[in-house]
Design goal:
Blueprint lengths: L1 H88 L1 H10 L23
Length: about 120
């Protein structure tokens, strides 16, 4: 009978060994599947970040282009205003304004002579 019990014990030991080997294999496979899932999620996440980055750069490029166009328009308006200012300061324009405002030329200049002790009163 002892042979029978020893055979049964060996058989149980072999069964346990086979089960532990299967458990190890399942664990390795489970870890492998987890690794795959993590890899896929990482790749999808990085692809999403890349698309977001490219989209963000594209939007900034359009905004920069719009602002450059606006700058050109404002510089052109500034130049036109400066030209208009220079024209209004020209001697011809001043002489035209003199006649429009009915101004006359000064014929005689008289200077006021004051004593050295005279001062002005501030209010």
């Amino acid at each position: 009978m002892s042979k029978y019990f020893s055979l049964c014990a060996r058989r149980e030991k072999n069964i346990k060994t086979k089960q532990t080997t299967k458990d190890r294999t399942k664990r390795v496979v489970n870890l492998f599947n987890v690794g795959r899932v993590f890899l896929v999620i990482s790749i999808v996440g990085l692809a999403g970040l890349y698309v977001f980055s490219v989209n963000n750069d594209s939007a900034k490029g359009f905004e920069l282009s719009r602002l450059e166009n606006q700058q050109k328009i404002l510089m052109e308006q500034n130049k036109q205003m400066e030209d208009k200012l220079q024209q209004s300061k020209s001697l011809v324009k001043v002489q035209e304004k003199v006649s429009v405002l009915n101004m006359v030329n000064v014929e005689a200049i008289e200077y006021l002579q004051l004593d050295n002790n005279t001062v002005a009163l501030a209010k």
